[in-house]
Amino acid sequence: MNAPEPAVLVLEDGTRHVGRAYGARGTTLGEVVFSTGMSGYQETITDPSYAGQIVLQTAPHIGNTGMNDEDPESRRIWVEGYIVRDPSRIVSNWRATESLDDALIRDGVVGISGIDTRAVTRHIRSAGSMRGGIFSGDDAALDADEQLRRVTAAPEMAGQNLSAQVSVAEVSLTPATGERIGALAVLDLGVKQATIDNLAARGFDVHVLPQDVSFEQLCAIDPVAVFYSNGPGDPAASAGHVALLREVLDARLPFFGICFGNQLLGRALGLGTYKLPFGHRGINQPVLDKATGKVEITAHNHGFAVEAPLDEPFDSPNGYGKVEVSHIGLNDRVVEGLRALDIPAFSVQYHPEAAAGPHDANYLFDRFAELVRTTQQAGTTKKDAQ
Question: What distance in Å separates the CA atoms of residue 220 and residue 218, rounded to the nearest whole number?
Answer without folding.
Answer: 5
